[in-house]
Amino acid sequence: MQKHTSKTYEADLERLQEKILRMGGLVEDSIAKAMQALVDRRPELARDTMAGDHLVNRLEVEIDEQCIELLALRQPAAGDLRLIITGLKISTDLERIGDLAVNMCERVLELLEAPALKPLIDLPRMADKARGMLRDSLDAYVRRDPVLAQDVCARDDEVDDLNKQVFRELLTYMLENPANIPRALSLGAIGRYMERIADHATNIAEMVIYLVKGKDIRHMAWKAGERPNES
To answer: What is the spatial distance between Cα 16 and Cα 97, in angstroms, rounded to a whole number?
Structure first.
């Protein structure tokens, strides 16, 4: 087996983190552009965003390959093993967020074929909150900050509540006039996509806690106010 210096190993781990952050920046940008395309009614921006998804997919493949190589050649233990496993899982969540941004753009293109159904207030708020959760989860990953990661997990309820509010409002539009149903359904789909983006950001934050503390807190009852032991 080829021998590697510790400096080379550290450089490999740094490159892994850099790729994850680059991927995170791309998907965060895609969320912002998808919402901007809806608010500003710019179909060309939605199409450009969809076309750029291949960059996210390529980074996921590169990250997977690098993680597998590190596992095979280094046989890491303890913290380094968690770091590589976390990288694999985070890249999967980021790729799915990218797919959801593409799904948003597809619904945007449908919506822009007709006049706007209603003023857009809560959907942009959802997008801002979901992007903030994603940004903070990646910041927690870089800083190895479990407290910030826990905060991201707790904020998921805010996005869920906004999504329910959007659904209730759209329901009134559908009941008032059946002609509103297609546009209301497309707007509702965008709300669901952003709710899922927030869920993936929460997954990343949970992996940060696993990375730092070695504790798997997935499926904990956050809604009941429970938090992992900070000791």
So the answer is: 19
